[in-house]
Specification:
- With 362 residues, the protein is α/β, with parallel strands linked by helices.
- Helix content is 46%, strand content 12%.
- The protein folds into 2 domains: 97 residues; 206 residues, Rossmann fold (3-Layer(aba) Sandwich), CATH 3.40.50.2000.
- The strands form 2 sheets. A 6-stranded parallel β-sheet has the order 7-6-5-8-9-10, with helices on both faces. The chain has a 4-stranded parallel β-sheet with strand order 1-2-3-4, with helices on both faces.
- It starts with 19 loop residues before the first helix and ends with a helix.
Length: 362
């Protein structure tokens, strides 16, 4: 967007934090950035506004835009269907049109009087990686005779510190030195050094008994998911990537105990989402499970996210097992449901809506 002439007032990646305790520490910086954006809207009133995700800031920006008479198009819905349902009135009051990327969201909004369109997910528009297994092995120093397991611990340092140690330790429970190699994509929001530090800490620990275990950092998550036999994926957008590529995986996640307890009390899904609680009373958090309306992906959360449980599920997904076959079939169905109803991509639909809004104001 910058190459096409966009002028950035604030860098979204500088204020993107998650979790209750995490947000509290960053409130001063977030509020300072918000004031800059409001001042920019007042100085240079736009003809149309496109808000993308980021509800804690964008709901307030939508208020100023609406008051200024600016049409507000919102792409990637805030997860009001999970919690903070009271904010729905802000969508009804301030948003001209909501563009949603998950199929159940269109019904959720339309049932509540909001003009909403399911565009399909932008990742569903991408072709599968074209690189062959042999080329991928050569580029990344991997042994094509072994099975590869992808580990995706998250895209923020805090997530990596919370998730990666258990992922690394689980590798020892898979006869890993003989059969497997482990590929770890480096998200664009972090540096390889952050991941390498975790690997070195693990190797120095008394638990790292198998020196034959090979971890390889790679640059592209989609290529890793395409060629891995199975994956361990931290909850987030990467679960959608894995589902759309069709790679069997399990979902893991850990946050602070306070954040987890509060979220468990607050999250309540509407009737449009039918996925049930697990045996521990936890609602599903992995988006593929919410879209499917049932648990097609195993989830290990908080205290249940431990190395032995990771390894026990991975063994089923790595083998030619009924569990692997069932998940592959479910993921194929999910990919069909994530495509737009028309052949028009999500981004093209949004572009057309922007041009239409500009035309109405000319």
């Amino acid at each position: 967007m910058e190459q096409e002439g966009q002028s950035r007032t604030i860098r979204a990646e500088d204020v993107a934090v998650m979790g209750i305790t995490e947000i509290l520490r960053h409130i001063p910086d977030i509020y300072r950035s918000y004031r800059c954006l409001v001042a920019e809207i007042r100085r240079n009133k736009p003809d149309v506004a496109v808000l993308i995700d980021f509800p804690d800031v964008n709901f307030r920006l939508a208020k100023h835009l609406h008051r200024a008479g600016v049409p507000v198009l919102w792409f990637v819905s805030p997860q009001l269907w999970a919690w903070k349902r009271s904010r729905l009135r802000w969508v009804q009051q301030r948003v001209s049109k909501m563009f949603v990327i998950f199929p159940f969201e269109e019904e959720f909004y339309r049932n509540r009087g909001v003009d909403a369109t399911f565009t399909g997910h932008p990742l569903a528009d991408l072709p599968l990686p074209a690189i062959t297994r042999e080329e991928y092995a050569k580029q990344n120093g991997l042994n094509p005779a072994k099975q590869w397991v992808a580990l995706l611990p998250g895209s923020r340092r805090k997530e990596i510190v919370a998730n990666m140690p258990a992922m690394l330790e689980s590798c020892q429970w898979l006869e890993s030195g003989e059969l497997y190699e482990f590929i770890i994509p480096v998200a664009k929001t972090i540096t390889p050094a952050i991941l390498q530090e975790q690997i070195e800490d693990w190797r120095r620990s008394f638990r790292a008994r198998d020196s034959r275990i090979h971890f390889q950092l790679v640059s592209d998550a989609r290529e890793a998911l395409e060629h891995a036999r199975a994956s361990v994926v931290a909850s987030g957008t990467a679960t959608v990537q894995a589902a759309l590529i069709g790679n069997p995986f399990l979902v893991v996640y850990r946050v602070s105990d306070l954040t987890f307890r509060v979220a468990k009390r607050l999250i309540r899904y509407p009737s449009e989402i039918t996925s049930p609680e697990d045996e521990y009373g936890n609602l599903p958090i992995a988006m593929p499970n919410l879209i499917a309306g049932k648990r097609i992906i195993p989830e290990l959360l908080q205290n249940h996210f431990n190395p032995k449980k990771i390894a026990s599920i991975l063994k089923l997904l790595l083998a030619d097992s009924p569990e692997r076959e069932s998940q592959l079939l479910a993921l194929a169905d999910l990919r069909r449901r994530m495509k737009p109803v028309s052949d028009t991509s999500a981004i093209t639909q949004l572009k057309d809506a922007v041009l239409h809004a500009l035309g109405d104001r000319s």
